[in-house]
């Protein structure tokens, strides 16, 4: 008891213990039960082709339907989940749920597009991500190209040798890989070649810099050129204005993502952007309708 009154006791009464950290503690306790109570949701945001603006892919973004606070953005609870390690089971749920949703859309006769999920560094360390991904795809009878993984630079640099090995296995499986928020973290350009990801996503801050009358699109333009020289596809995130859209398209950016084209939305609402196949081209769906 005397020991407890030492540092912890002091911290409790000190001004450092602000309402935010107390809130975090409460949030962490509630977050533990959120998964089991089924309070997590995925919202889907479209990625459109820069030429033609057809929806060709999507990103799954985590939400927490909190019983009292309402729908919470990842900014509110992902940091807490990462600190507590809860991000590992939560991240597993994200991958399984994305695959389950793709299967459900396919069964409804929707034309599927690849869906990207965001990974946390801890999922590389504390989880057999390769087996998890393989299992989630197999359980739902999905081809691997329908799943994309978004990784951050910091994540890749942490244990580069091990990461290269894991990424090679994922790539061999046919899963596609993207570097998220590119340019915002610390990365070595030499490693870009080693990691061999298919896609770079230009960080939102550089897209935000593209303004009419300004001359601040240089970084976005440079990232597009770099990616193309490495044989990679480029996605711009956070596209909000027509000016940004036109600038990025002129620079040869491949895909655009942002509020201009669609906000993240619940699965039921996103489904309408997928359109439905009159005649399912998928062999499995065709086989089923014949059998029925
Ligand atoms: P991110 O992966 O870079 O995702 C893009 C974020 O930008 C999303 O915020 C999206 O709603 C927002 N966004 C998209 N278009 C626009 C736009 O035109 N303007 C503006 N201002 N924002 C736009 P969100 O959903 O709040 O997610 C924030 C971050 O939380 C994500 O950034 C990602 O790092 C993390 N996150 C989301 N879902 C997961 C998850 O399942 N697992 C993990 N580990 N992290 C996640
Ligand atoms: Mg992302
Ligand atoms: Mg991003
Ligand atoms: Mg971001």
From TrEMBL:
Domain EAL: 24-278
Top-level taxon of origin: Bacteria
Protein name per the record: PAS domain S-box-containing protein/diguanylate cyclase (GGDEF)-like protein
The organism of origin for this protein: Azoarcus indigens
